[in-house]
Design brief:
Pfam families: HGTP_anticodon (PF03129), tRNA-synt_2b (PF00587), tRNA_edit (PF04073)
Bound molecules: adenosine-5'-triphosphate, magnesium ion
Shape: elongated
Radius of gyration: 27 Å
Main location: cytoplasm
Strand content: 25-35%
Protein name: Proline--tRNA ligase
Distance between the termini: 11 Å
GO molecular function, one term: proline-tRNA ligase activity
Number of strands: 28
Subcellular location: Cytoplasm
Number of helices: 15
């Protein structure tokens, strides 16, 4: 193996911190900053320092190897994109505030790419003319931009972040199914190699469009997603998708929908006044009970809410989540304010446990107006369930009826069978076997590369610090010179021997720091093996620590080298 460069801590750009950053709430955010992996540049925008960049590159390398292994070809598309293709697909407006938009000097509109379905479709339209050119799978590892409403948790939710996005192009549905299956299997291998505990769950397709989609979720308390899985069958779904999968209500035998003025149902402004919060408070379309009364609170367009914060805003009112019981004897009681969309675009609560045929009172598209007898599925489509997680642990599994488990997780990957949505929008055809044009069918597949770094930190860190799996660690061995002169000389020769045998070595050669401080830093940084040259250096004895298990052993340097190489 090639000799590796020894990274000396005395030269390393990584200042470790004893204190958690004040704004950090999640473990990965705290530790990645404290251990000197990343630094905040602006809200949701991060600088990757040398240690962080190494981990990020390791994740990218694994992703790249597995994408190459299924025959996907790497490309690099621009992040700076013209508006027009996104107008053709409808996403220039659909994405709303999530898009970073800018103008060039001539006044032409541009955006910073949040995901690239449109542009890849155009590339293939330009390059492929015959069915013989397909199937093709293309991918890139690239910086993406999304002006998230609430960038948080460090690199878990950035406004600028690294994504691996790939796209498959096939002439038949069977072909698409195959490309999708290849990606699904590659994703399993990627996350296994990275050491990320993960689940595959059914998901909703959202703004991406298309039919089937699945998410790869990494269970972690810091996750912003909630999923259910069944202990007795293989059912697993994001809670968003559990509701989505509810049978549509046909509304047969129910009165037609009717708009009614409902002065008792407040607008956001009136409700905010009633609740004593500014209308700009960080609330959204959310059904809650305030002092026992079910109300909807929120600011249209703001799709996220933090219930804990909501509670603070609403104090001293008693705020509770609406549960199934609240609906049981009040079938008329689902009501609330919905943004400026028309009734056909209402995105609102659809609780699968509300009995079929229930008439609803829901938000209408006029201020101070509500609609009575609206039947979900008849009068409007619920295209995405946004607001309240009404699925609870123990709820019956839609597939077998057993009690569901419920957990928090981080979305690390998402795969979509897009079908012909983008091919239709851009007229992507190839000449088929019979000489007639055939419309192409597509899949798209994302992995949050930078998010995966934070997800790994969440899953593997302990009270002493980060603790990387070998595949992604910024080094293989962290050699600590716990003392001057003899210990330092022994540490130097250990580092040299390890790097000569191909291991990546971090050498703590810093002067003027106590062994205690160096060891605390080593544990914080989280390299899998820590080799300490200390008190017994005179006898050529070192201590070898295994960071994940904490086991320590005194060995001669030769024994330690034999153990590690
Ligand atoms: P989320 O639900 O967390 O907002 P998403 O569903 O909007 O994610 P996708 O459009 O499915 O994200 O993008 C593919 C992948 O990119 C996601 O599975 C996730 O791992 C990653 N990703 C998305 N948004 C961010 C972000 N703001 N910061 C870091 N990674 C992200
Ligand atoms: Mg998102
Ligand atoms: Mg998502
Ligand atoms: Mg997603």
């Amino acid at each position: 193996m090639a000799t590796q460069h020894v990274q000396r801590m005395s030269r390393l750009m990584a200042k470790t911190l004893r204190e958690d950053p004040a704004d950090a709430e999640t473990l990965s955010h705290k530790l990645l900053v404290r251990a000197g992996y990343v630094r905040r540049s602006s809200a949701g925008v991060w600088t990757w320092l040398p240690l962080g960049k190494r981990v990020l590159d390791n994740v990218s390398r694994v992703v790249r190897e597995e994408m190459d292994a299924i025959g996907a070809q790497e490309v690099l598309l621009p992040a700076l994109l013209p508006k027009e293709p996104y107008e053709v697909s409808g996403r220039w407006s659909e994405y709303g505030d999530l898009l970073f938009r800018l103008k060039d000097r001539k006044g032409a509109d541009y955006l910073l790419g949040p995901t690239h379905e449109e542009i890849f479709t155009l590339v293939v339209k330009d390059q492929c003319t015959s069915y013989k050119d397909l199937p093709v799978m293309l991918y890139q590892i690239q910086t993406k931009y999304r002006d998230e409403a609430r960038p948080r948790s460090g690199v878990l939710r950035g406004r600028e972040f690294q994504m691996k996005d790939s796209y498959s192009f096939d002439v038949s549905d069977e072909g698409l199914a195959e490309s999708y299956a290849l990606h699904r299997a590659a994703y399993r291998r990627i996350f296994e190699r990275l050491g990320l505990d993960h689940r595959i769950v059914s998901a909703v397709s959202g703004a991406m469009g298309g039919s089937a989609s699945e998410e790869f979720l990494a269970p972690a308390a810091a996750g912003e997603d909630t999923f259910v899985d069944c202990p007795s069958c293989d059912y697993a779904a994001n809670t968003e998708a559990v509701t989505f999968a509810a049978p549509a209500v046909d509304g047969a035998g129910h009165a037609p929908a009717q708009e009614i003025p409902t002065p008792d149902t407040p607008t956001i402004e009136a409700l905010a006044a009633h609740l004593g919060v500014p209308a700009s408070a960080t609330l959204k379309n959310l059904l809650v009970k305030v002092d026992g009364e079910i109300v909807a609170v929120g600011v249209p367009g703001d799709r996220e809410v933090d219930l804990g914060k909501l509670g603070e805003h609403l104090a001293p009112a008693v705020v509770e989540l609406v549960t199934a019981e609240d609906f049981a004897d009040r079938p008329d009681l689902v009501r609330g304010y919905v943004g400026p969309q028309g009734l056909d675009k209402v995105r609102y609560l659809a609780d699968p446990r509300v009995a079929p045929g229930t008439s609803w009172v829901t938000g209408a598209n006029k201020a101070d107006t509500h609609a009575r007898n609206v039947v979900c599925g008849r009068d409007f489509e619920v295209d995405r369930y946004l607001d309240v997680v009404v699925v609870e642990a123990g709820d019956p599994c839609p597939s077998c009826g057993a009690g569901l488990r419920l957990d928090r997780a981080i979305e690390i990957g998402h795969i979509f069978q897009l079908g012909r949505k983008y091919a239709d929008a851009f007229g992507l055809d190839v000449l088929g076997r019979e000489g007639k044009p055939v419309r192409v069918t597509m899949g798209s597949y994302g992995i949050g590369v930078s998010r995966a770094v934070a997800a790994l930190a969440e899953q593997t860190a302990d009270e002493r610090g980060l603790c990387w799996p070998a595949e992604v660690a910024p080094a293989d061995v962290h050699v600590v010179a716990a003392g001057k002169a003899v210990p330092l000389a022994l540490a130097e020769s250990a580092a040299e021997a390890l790097s000569a045998s191909g291991l990546r070595v971090l050498l703590d050669d810093r002067a003027g720091l106590s062994p205690g401080v160096k060891l605390t830093d080593a544990e914080l940084i989280g390299v899998p093996w820590i080799l300490v040259a200390g008190r017994r250096s005179g006898d050529g004895v070192v201590e070898l620590q295994h960071r994940p298990t904490g086991t320590r052993e005194e060995l001669t340097l030769d024994e330690a080298l034999a153990r590690l190489t």
